[in-house]
DNA sequence: AGAGAAACTTCCTATCGGGAAGTAGGCACT
DNA sequence: AGTGCCTACTTCCCGATAGGAAGTTTCTCT
């Protein structure tokens, strides 16, 4: 990693990434995005906030949200994890952090195009969880009954 | 009404589950599937094993794999986590575990239809990680340069 | 008899997430 | 003037959890 320009390196490396390899950067990236808080934050910022509309694809209305808004929507997230996860997503360029020096300072977060592209995946995950919940529950009962 | 058909039940349940609520079962399910080992195992069993083909969608050839095969493919997974994760996926009905009493016992794992449907999501995640790796790397450099 | 192989299981420890309390800095009310 | 409250964090402590390594079981081959 010395004389090659970053852009060149990236272009060449694209073919080489394989998330199954422990040392591969794409594996680390996959590890990071395979995180419950990452998925939920992307869903929140991607606009599929309320319940319902789980099955059908509907227009995304990605919207900027304030720290406290996200905190309220993602019931159960600790402030520490929220801040930490938002920072890492900002670091990777998935969202932008904007500070407005209002009365009490206002910080808003918004998905970038890159973040939006990942949002398509996370929205799918959330929808899957909600639509197949009943099936999974049935399978669990079944399994527990068999192994009792 | 216990005579409700599964499809109906699912359709109704859809409206009720909301992964944003901390207590909702679908939230717990989302937490479980938003796990790096879950994603990688599903990718492995779903058939997109080798490197390459990062961008284009290609035919899945879900295949049964032995414990040791998975262990070898997912470099870096500990035996404990592999066993644990496979059990939880079996418990939820995403894959089947088959023991064949051969010379040294052979255990093979295979995706169920439910697991296969989730595989579509996880494959997307893996592809996303591999195709956008370069972009993320660039964003990180950028971020670090700005905040240095 | 002893080695070896597959698929775990158990134990120990390092790391990580959650809970709660503390911080900054500006306004607003008494 | 001082007390208190607001947002968006940061810090600290502790219990839960992931990882590494070694042990277990059962059978076969040498």
Automatic annotation (TrEMBL), chains A, B:
Residues of the HTH hxlR-type domain: 24-137
GO molecular function: DNA binding
Swiss-Prot/TrEMBL keywords: DNA-binding, Transcription, Transcription regulation
UniProt superkingdom: Bacteria
Pfam family, one: HxlR
Gene3D superfamilies: Winged helix-like DNA-binding domain superfamily/Winged helix DNA-binding domain
PANTHER family (alphabetical): TRANSCRIPTIONAL REGULATOR, MARR FAMILY, TRANSCRIPTIONAL REGULATORY PROTEIN
Name used for this protein in its record: DNA-binding HxlR family transcriptional regulator
């Amino acid at each position: 990693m010395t004389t090659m320009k970053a852009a060149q390196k990236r272009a060449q490396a694209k073919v080489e990434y394989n998330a199954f390899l422990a040392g591969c950067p794409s594996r680390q990236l996959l590890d990071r995005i395979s995180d419950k808080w990452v998925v939920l934050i992307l869903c929140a910022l991607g606009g599929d906030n309320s319940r319902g509309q789980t099955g059908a694809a509907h227009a995304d209305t990605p919207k900027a949200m304030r720290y406290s808004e996200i905190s309220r929507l993602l019931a159960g997230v600790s402030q520490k994890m929220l801040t930490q996860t938002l920072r890492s997503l900002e670091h990777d360029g998935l969202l932008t952090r904007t500070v407005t020096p209002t009365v009490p300072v206002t910080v808003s977060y918004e998905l970038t195009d890159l973040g939006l592209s990942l949002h398509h995946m996370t929205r799918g995950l959330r929808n899957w969880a909600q639509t197949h919940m009943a099936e999974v529950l049935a399978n669990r009962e079944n399994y527990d009954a068999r192994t009792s």
